[in-house]
């Protein structure tokens, strides 16, 4: 997520048991043959392991690779990154577009059941879920000084990871390569893409077949993103005309980093009004630490359309997963306390009991990350001007990184509009709106989605994802 100081980890501590702890192992020894909670044959081949990106420091990045359920030898390879900084990409695997949906356990102390996800992005692509930087998720370093990092080091490590990963999996080298992610990955992806392009000039081997990237609700430019929140709140009916106009007047339309005392007071007033909202989706309840289930019977008088707001196909309530505890409900998961997930059995062997990482958190504050590369707009200009395709998409009910800011910066690129603002459809229903620009840049909104778009709108997300990979407009 873009703001780790304000979010509560929606996955509590997990202990991972891997029989694939050796780095640089051959792919077959990294094959995942079973997952707890899932009965049946995996829909495609899964691999997991570590790639060493710094031998001297013992810095190792963890990946989980899901081969395509379609044609893995031809389908694109997509590297997925969650944000934070400090959040594991298992977020995307578990809650967004991984091969499984997770059914909440009915009994405390038991594991969730896994069901096949009909809208998994692995239906149409190979996908690598990468924990980055070191210190996040299952990735680690033997030199703890590496946990103090920033944009440049992270992008270099991720580039090194890709080069080394394709040495382990050379059969995928000819496949088109795309980068994808959300939230603070709006920083990770353009900086990584630049490293890839610079690697071409430097003769880095193997040569990656890089084609483009897609970013959802991505952090991009502090000023534009910061200034977008107040207009978004007004447009969504969250603050009154009077509060908006007074704030706009006192701040002269500049809300971010404005040190005028009167402006600061108005911004604080807006913040107070919005304080009870779920910033990741203004339609969803905001959980403040209570473990009580939401009352599902008191809304029976509401029209069905109101009761359906924010609903997804996922079996677990959307934001309860983020702001409350996940599984097992009601107690933290500790080593030796209850069964844990994930436990990965590789090569048919029994999972080892010694963990590579002492504890696992969805999002950690153990790393000290410095965003030191500034605005990403110059990165996007350089990349798109070289012909790399970019899809910039936004869930339109996200208050954390509002679509208003993303729409503003994509427009500020100054590219000619080649596909004027219009709705896009799924099942003959408007799924959002899009605007296409010259140089293969597209801005897309997803109607009714929050910060983590595939979590809210899995069917619509798979649709635009496949269209983008295929080089088609929505």
Automatic annotation (TrEMBL):
The keyword RNA-binding belongs to this UniProt entry's keyword annotation: no
Source superkingdom: Eukaryota
PROSITE patterns associated with the record: CARBOXYPEPT_SER_HIS (PS00560)
Cleavable signal peptide: 1-25
Transmembrane segment boundaries: none
GO molecular function, one term: acyltransferase activity, transferring groups other than amino-acyl groups
Record GO biological process: proteolysis; secondary metabolic process
A Pfam family that the UniProt record links to this protein: Peptidase_S10
Subcellular location: Secreted
One term under GO cellular component: extracellular region
InterPro entries in the cross-refs: AB_hydrolase_fold, Peptidase_S10, Ser_caboxypep_his_AS
SUPFAM superfamilies reported for this sequence: alpha/beta-Hydrolases (SSF53474)
Keyword annotations from UniProtKB, A to Z: Carboxypeptidase, Disulfide bond, Glycoprotein, Hydrolase, Protease, Signal
Role according to the record: Probable carboxypeptidase.
Family from the record: Belongs to the peptidase S10 family.
The protein's name: Uncharacterized protein
Organism: Lupinus luteus (European yellow lupine)
């Amino acid at each position: 997520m873009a703001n780790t100081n304000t979010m509560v980890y929606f996955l509590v501590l997990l202990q991972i048991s891997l029989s694939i702890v050796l780095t640089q192992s051959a792919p077959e020894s990294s094959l995942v043959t079973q997952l707890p909670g899932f009965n049946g044959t995996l829909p495609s081949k899964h691999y997991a392991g570590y790639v060493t990106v710094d031998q001297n420091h013992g810095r190792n990045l963890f990946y989980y690779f899901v081969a395509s359920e379609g044609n893995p030898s031809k389908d694109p390879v997509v590297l997925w990154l969650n944000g934070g900084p400090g959040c594991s990409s298992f977020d995307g695997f578990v809650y967004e577009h991984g091969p499984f949906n997770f059914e909440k356990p009915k009994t405390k102390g038991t594991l969730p059941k896994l069901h096949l996800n009909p809208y998994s992005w692995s239906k149409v692509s190979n996908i690598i879920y990468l924990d980055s930087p070191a210190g996040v998720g299952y990735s680690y370093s033997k030199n703890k000084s590496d946990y103090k990092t920033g944009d440049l080091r992270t992008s270099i490590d991720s580039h090194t990871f890709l080069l080394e990963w394709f040495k382990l999996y050379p059969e995928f080298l000819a496949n088109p390569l795309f980068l994808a992610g959300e939230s603070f990955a709006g920083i990770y992806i353009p900086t990584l893409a630049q490293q890839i392009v610079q690697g071409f000039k430097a003769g880095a081997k193997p040569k990656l077949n890089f084609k483009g990237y897609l970013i959802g609700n991505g952090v991009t430019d502090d000023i534009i993103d910061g200034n977008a929140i107040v207009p978004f709140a007004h447009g969504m009916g969250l603050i009154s005309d009077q509060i908006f106009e007074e704030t706009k007047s006192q701040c002269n339309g500049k809300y971010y980093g404005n040190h005028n005392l009167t402006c600061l007071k108005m911004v604080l007033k807006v913040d107070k009004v919005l304080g009870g909202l779920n910033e990741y989706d203004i339609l969803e309840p905001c959980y403040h630490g209570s473990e009580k289930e939401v009352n599902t019977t008191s809304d029976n008088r509401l029209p069905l359309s109101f009761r359906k707001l924010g609903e997804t196909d996922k079996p677990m309530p959307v934001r309860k997963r983020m702001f409350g505890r996940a599984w097992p409900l009601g107690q933290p998961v500790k080593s030796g306390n209850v069964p844990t997930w994930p436990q990965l059995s590789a090569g048919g062997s029994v999972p080892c009991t010694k963990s590579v990482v002492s504890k696992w958190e969805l999002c950690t504050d153990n790393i000290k990350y410095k965003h030191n590369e500034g605005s990403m707009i110059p990165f996007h200009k350089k990349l798109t001007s070289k012909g790399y395709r970019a899809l910039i998409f936004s869930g339109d009910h996200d208050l954390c990184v509002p679509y208003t800011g993303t729409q503003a910066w994509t427009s500020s690129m100054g590219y000619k509009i080649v596909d004027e603002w219009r709705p896009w459809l799924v099942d003959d229903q408007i799924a959002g709106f899009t605007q296409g620009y010259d140089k293969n840049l597209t801005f897309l909104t997803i109607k009714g989605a929050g910060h983590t778009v595939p979590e809210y709108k899995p069917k619509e997300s798979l649709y635009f994802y496949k269209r983008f990979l295929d080089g088609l407009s929505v």
